[in-house]
Design brief:
Oligomer: single chain
Order of helices and strands: HHHHHHHHHH
Radius of gyration: 19 Å
Shape: elongated
Helix content: 55-70%
């Protein structure tokens, strides 16, 4: 089956959805390929045409979920940010307008995200954020007068800090309100000013 075929993508989507459904019922380690195939309505040979094992499916499912999120979020993403038309205040991305959609997305997919963070090294979860941070934060940091040499360090500070807070929130089964998490993130990140 060719990865460019729509039939391939439909089968993959069915398996992504089956895995997400099963994750809401049991731990990932207890989910079998047989269960995934039965729920997705595909046979095992189709599964193994796509993936070597369930970890491959998990990785691709995370990528697909992120792609879906960022495609919806891109209205305020890098390609739509015209820095010349925005005030400095509008370029601070740790506001509820930017954080709430992301926290809603994390909460809706909490089981998937918890596994992603739990297996962070295997999944390379941070790579997903890095591209987003570079595309969105890079031009904004430049606007705020942050040197190219300093930008990677500032971006990794934001990246690790926000991931750490969200990871802790997931470990607590998202018991705190999203508003509380936004407030915590905002307390941790100082405002950026050109004259600093």
């Amino acid at each position: 089956m060719n990865k460019n075929d729509s039939k391939y993508f439909k089968s993959a989507e069915k398996m992504h959805n089956a895995l997400i459904t099963l994750l809401n019922k049991k731990d990932f380690e207890l989910i079998t390929v047989k269960e995934i195939c039965e729920l997705a309505g595909v046979n095992r040979s189709t599964f193994y045409l796509h993936y070597d094992n369930s970890y491959d499916l998990l990785k691709e499912t995370i990528e697909a979920v992120y792609k879906d999120f960022f495609s919806r979020f891109s209205a305020d993403g890098n390609k739509e940010i015209n820095l010349k038309e925005k005030s400095d205040e509008e370029l601070i991305l740790v506001t509820p307008n930017y954080l709430m959609p992301y926290l809603e997305f994390v909460e809706d997919n909490r089981k998937l995200f918890f596994i992603m963070y739990e297996k962070n090294e295997m999944m390379g979860a941070e790579k997903t954020y890095e591209k987003w941070f570079k595309e969105i934060f890079g031009p904004i940091l430049t606007r705020f007068g942050v040197s190219q040499e300093d930008q990677p360090f500032i971006m990794i500070f934001y990246l690790k800090g926000i991931i750490g807070i969200i990871n802790e929130w997931l470990a607590r089964d998202c018991k705190e309100s999203k508003e509380t998490i936004i407030s915590i993130i905002q307390k941790c990140i100082p405002s950026t000013r050109k004259d600093d």
